[in-house]
Design a protein that fits this description.
single chain, alpha+beta, Alpha-Beta Plaits, 4-stranded antiparallel beta sheet, 3 helices, 33% helix, globular
Amino acid sequence: MTNFIVSYDLNGARPSHKEVDQLLEQLGATRGRVLETVWYVGFWGTEQQLFDAIRSKLGREDRLIVVRASEAQWENPLLSDDSLATAWRKHR
């Protein structure tokens, strides 16, 4: 499993944030919101596979970035420091 940072802006009526989170759950991804519009995602596939899966749910007016991440530092994320650190170490 690899660590990814995912951020998306939903600008249309669909999908909802809940629908995108459910998609990540269906993909088997470990995930958690670290900032208001930024998610940590641990995923078994490549960044292209993750990007394509999320993009398939988005509208043309939505925005998306998927970044494979090997190193990170953080301060006061929405996830507890322990849960983020545990997931990060598990998937790098």
